[in-house]
């Protein structure tokens, strides 16, 4: 168990750092001379004719062998600290020889040439192969990095620093490096720990370099795992075929079904319908676990108690339920478990094969036989994945498998681990309280991003071997981060594993030698249709002109267009508010003025297509119960329309039409969405809204807007008063959570004419593309259509109908009658008040 | 410079004391750990402790007279073989460590001219 170490209570003391450069040089010379003398003396003495000298030579040899064992090691190992108090320990005792030499050399450089001690140590560190390798894995060119360090050193090389200050800096650095090494469970303070520690010092120059190369010092230790394992496995072993193989395995243990006490009984029928996880652990197929410490310890405690030793693991697919159980099997074969688990087998029952090809009667017989075997063998811990399937195995006139097992489970005769999903727990098991009460529920939570990165690094080492491609650390990090953000159908690490594997396969097929973060990003973008990459010059230009792009399809409503454009620009620059949606707007105004149209245009131009818009007509959510249609029903039978849509399409535009018409309780769920960008559904899943833009529309108080505009007031003048009026429709806390409330003004005749032109141009384009017909509209026709399509109450809403009735329908009939053919130029004119096609 | 020489002397003494500490304490710790790990691995096969604990139980829960008889016979054999192997292993381990511990004394004795054949062999012979 890791102890908390107080930096104030540890010391750094080594007299060699108090020496002058000359003294250190002298000390090194004496040390080397001593060993040279000793080696020469040993050889001479051993081959001497004098017997006593030969014995002296042998004694020297033993001394030299002992020293050879300590090459590159520290005085003490950090591992020993687990059993001793850490207060007052001297951190210099844990510096590996390599780290010590680097510190010593950097100190000499700083004292003799001047400059910043941290920069000098950084320069010395990046000369090391493993640090260069780790930088390369982090997609940082070691050459460029070194060049930048040199530039910084050059800038302040004349700055002299007094020795005392250097010693204080060494002390600070070594103490932080010690903590890093201790947390990473390293044996000594290695150069990688010092590199990580430098990033946490107060040096501005270092911070500047790390920012420039986007280096997170903590990542380096993880990036070093690659080289550490590659080196380890290149020397003596073959890389494991599966991730489970990384678990430290005992050797020489044979495959066995019976326990070592010879008190168990064979279980032939159980063996037919199950997999023995302890066997797999012996074969080093399973047992590697990262994270899930809490769940693992809970599981061990429950299984070890005398009464009700049954656990139900509840977690989403890919959350690691089976991995935790596998770890228990692994610990059993290592004898690292308590008495009630000692010398047992963990057997995974395959319900699929248990019920396949059997009628309910046969299933009952099989279950009874299996239970009999388990009870009599007394060394089985039964693991039942998808345990909810047990309650689904009943037929007419027959008991379900769950019913048969119930009495046995109740008697505490065997230890049982069940696994299910939150949805199935609600749907199938909660109604069976008699069955559920036998188990203690342990919720298996998603592992953290940090843990997932570590796990995926191990996975990458295997995949690198299989696909002959090098995986950069940044690619792993990006895969975890993107999977956690956008691929929420599965949990970490499964979601990130899938993404990483897909990226590796594609990169490998393309013949790439290295998988970089950019590749993972582009695959993710393709899958979720989210612009994740940093905005290119071209995209930046288009973002800067977003208002013009929108105005190609939307007339007027300047304020609304400007607000949404700004929100999109902030999001793509990474400056939007963290922890909330991209933006949330309330569009208010009369009907037919372009509220919904603007949402559609945005969905098309910025979110990929109109299908990226998730639309809810809030007038359909007027009763209190409709909240469940958004987040799902408590019994799990109805899934949430809003939450499911966002899980499927995390980057989307949510349009909440006629927002004021929904039940107030339904509107309350949006408080959390607008504020934190998250919403918990009926199954307890937290849905992320941080990549959505939410637009709510409303007609509330639109007459007030019309009156005020007609009285010559500007929108900015009426905005505050208008917001007060909205308070009678929406609760103030809801209104205040919108990024902005945007007022849409009534459309003028001029606006309608422009919209008509826009719509007719669209139609002409459509006709040209699909039918090869060139349509040309006379100005008088445009004017006529705009008059027909305008309604003071409905704004531009009737316009589509007017175009459809007067132009589209007529044209369609003429095309079908073959009066208008491909390649024809059709001029639409107004003659005698009638629209004529020529 | 005085501090330098004190440190120099200090390191010299430290290296010698460290060699002795590692020869006896560190090696004993490492060796004990190695032997215990070896015994643990052997226990995966011989299961001495578990066999002893379940000594009176029938073999594979065969609660007939045969189960008890076979349980007694097989467990006795297993206990005997296990105890023998463990005994040999532990004895060997102790001998090896004693020899290891005596190596420096033996070398030093030879350096100072202590004649083992004169003293030790003769005393051992006298014992018998």
UniProtKB/TrEMBL annotation, chain B:
Q: Does the keyword Transmembrane apply?
A: yes
* Transmembrane spans: 79-112
What is the name of this protein?
Answer: Uncharacterized protein
Q: Tell me which UniProt keywords the record has, alphabetically.
A: Membrane, Transmembrane, Transmembrane helix
Q: Which domain of life is it from?
A: Bacteria
Q: Is Membrane one of the keywords UniProt gives this record? A: yes
């Amino acid at each position: 168990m890791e102890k908390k170490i107080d930096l104030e209570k540890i010391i750094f003391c080594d007299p060699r750092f108090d020496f002058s450069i000359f003294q250190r040089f002298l000390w090194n010379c004496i040390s080397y001379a001593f060993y040279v003398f000793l080696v020469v003396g040993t050889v001479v003495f051993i081959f001497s004719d004098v017997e006593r000298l030969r014995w002296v030579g042998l004694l020297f040899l033993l001394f030299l062998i002992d020293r050879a064992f300590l090459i590159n090691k520290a005085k003490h190992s950090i591992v020993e600290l687990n059993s001793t108090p850490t207060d007052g320990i001297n951190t210099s005792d844990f510096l590996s020889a390599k780290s010590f030499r680097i510190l010593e050399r950097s100190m000499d450089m700083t004292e003799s040439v001047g400059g910043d001690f941290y920069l000098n140590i950084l320069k010395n560190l990046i000369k090391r192969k493993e640090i260069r390798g780790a930088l390369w894995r982090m997609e940082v060119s070691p050459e460029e990095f070194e060049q930048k360090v040199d530039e910084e050193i050059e800038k302040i090389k004349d700055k002299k620093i007094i020795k005392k200050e250097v010693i204080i800096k060494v002390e600070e650095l070594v103490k932080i490096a010690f903590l890093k090494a201790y947390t990473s469970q390293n044996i000594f303070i290695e150069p990688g720990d010092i590199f990580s520690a430098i990033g946490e010092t107060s040096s501005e120059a270092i911070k500047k370099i790390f920012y420039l190369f986007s280096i997170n010092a903590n990542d380096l230790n993880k990036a070093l795992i690659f080289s550490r394992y590659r080196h380890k496995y290149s020397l003596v072993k073959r890389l494991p075929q599966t991730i489970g193989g990384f678990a430290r395995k005992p050797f020489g243990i044979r495959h066995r079904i019976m326990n070592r006490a010879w008190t168990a009984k064979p279980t032939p029928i159980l063996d037919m319908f199950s997999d023995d996880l302890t066997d797999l652990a012996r074969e080093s197929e399973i047992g590697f676990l990262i994270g899930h410490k809490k769940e693992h310890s809970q599981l061990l405690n429950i299984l070890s108690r005398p009464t009700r030793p049954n656990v139900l693991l509840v977690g989403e697919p890919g959350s690691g339920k089976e991995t935790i159980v596998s770890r228990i099997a692994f610990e059993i074969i290592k004898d690292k478990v308590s008495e009630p688990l000692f010398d047992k087998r963990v057997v995974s029952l395959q319900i699929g094969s248990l019920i396949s090809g059997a009628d309910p009667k046969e299933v009952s017989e099989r279950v009874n036989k299996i239970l009999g075997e388990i009870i009599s063998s007394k060394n089985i811990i039964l693991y039942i994945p998808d345990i909810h399937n047990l309650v689904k195995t009943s037929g007419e006139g027959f008991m379900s498998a769950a019913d048969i097992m119930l009495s046995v489970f109740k008697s505490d005769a065997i230890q049982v681990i069940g696994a299910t999903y939150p949805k199935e727990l609600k749907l199938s098991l909660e109604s069976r309280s008699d069955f559920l009460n036998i188990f203690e529920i342990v919720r298996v939570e998603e592992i953290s991003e940090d843990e997932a990165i570590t796990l995926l690094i191990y996975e990458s080492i295997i995949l690198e071997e299989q696909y002959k491609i090098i995986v950069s650390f940044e690619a792993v990090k990006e895969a975890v981060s993107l999977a956690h953000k956008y691929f929420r159908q599965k949990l970490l690490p499964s979601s990130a594993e899938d993404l990483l594997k897909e990226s590796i396969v594609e990169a490998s097929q393309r013949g790439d030698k290295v998988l970089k973060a950019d590749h993972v990003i582009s695959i993710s973008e393709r899958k979720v249709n989210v612009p994740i990459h940093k905005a290119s010059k071209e995209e930046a230009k288009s973002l800067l002109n977003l208002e013009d792009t929108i105005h190609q399809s939307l007339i007027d409503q300047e304020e609304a267009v400007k607000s949404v454009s700004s929100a999109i620009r902030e999001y793509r620059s990474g400056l939007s508010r963290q922890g909330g949606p991209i933006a949330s707007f309330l569009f208010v105004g009369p009907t037919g003025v372009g509220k919904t149209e603007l949402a559609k245009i945005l969905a098309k131009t910025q979110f990929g297509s109109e299908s990226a818009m998730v639309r809810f007509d809030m007038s359909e959510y007027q009763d209190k119960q409709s909240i469940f249609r958004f987040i799902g029903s408590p019994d799990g039978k109805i899934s949430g329309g809003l939450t499911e849509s966002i899980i499927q399409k995390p980057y989307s535009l949510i349009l909440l039409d006629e927002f004021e018409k929904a039940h107030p309780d339904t509107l309350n769920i949006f408080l959390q969405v607008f504020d934190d960008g998250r919403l918990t559904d009926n199954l307890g899943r937290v849905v992320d809204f941080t990549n959505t833009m939410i637009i709510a529309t409303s007609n509330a108080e639109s007459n007030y807007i019309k009156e005020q505009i007609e009285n010559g007031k500007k929108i900015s003048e009426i905005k505050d008063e208008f917001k007060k009026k909205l308070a009678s429709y929406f609760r103030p806390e809801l209104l205040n959570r919108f990024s902005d409330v945007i007022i849409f003004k009534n459309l003028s005749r001029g606006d309608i004419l422009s919209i008509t032109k826009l719509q007719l141009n669209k139609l002409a384009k459509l006709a040209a593309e699909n039918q090869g017909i060139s349509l040309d509209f006379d100005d008088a026709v445009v004017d006529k259509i705009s008059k027909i399509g305008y309604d003071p109450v409905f704004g531009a809403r009737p316009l589509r109908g007017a175009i459809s009735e007067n132009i589209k329908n007529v044209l369609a009939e003429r095309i079908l009658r073959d009066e208008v053919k491909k390649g024809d130029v059709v001029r639409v004119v107004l003659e005698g008040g009638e629209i004529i096609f020529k | 410079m005085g501090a330098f020489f004190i440190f120099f002397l200090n390191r010299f003494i430290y290296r010698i004391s460290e060699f002795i500490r590692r020869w006896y304490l560190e090696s004993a710790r490492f060796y004990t750990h190695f032997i215990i790990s070896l015994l643990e691995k052997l226990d995966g096969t011989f299961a001495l402790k578990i066999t002893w604990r379940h000594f009176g139980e029938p073999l594979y829960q065969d609660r007939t007279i045969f189960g008890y008889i076979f349980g007694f016979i097989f467990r006795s054999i297993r206990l005997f073989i296990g105890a023998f192997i463990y005994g040999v292993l532990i004895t060997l381990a102790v001998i090896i460590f004693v020899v290891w511990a005596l190596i420096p004394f033996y070398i030093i004795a030879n350096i100072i001219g202590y004649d083992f054949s004169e003293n030790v062999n003769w005393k051992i012979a006298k014992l018998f």
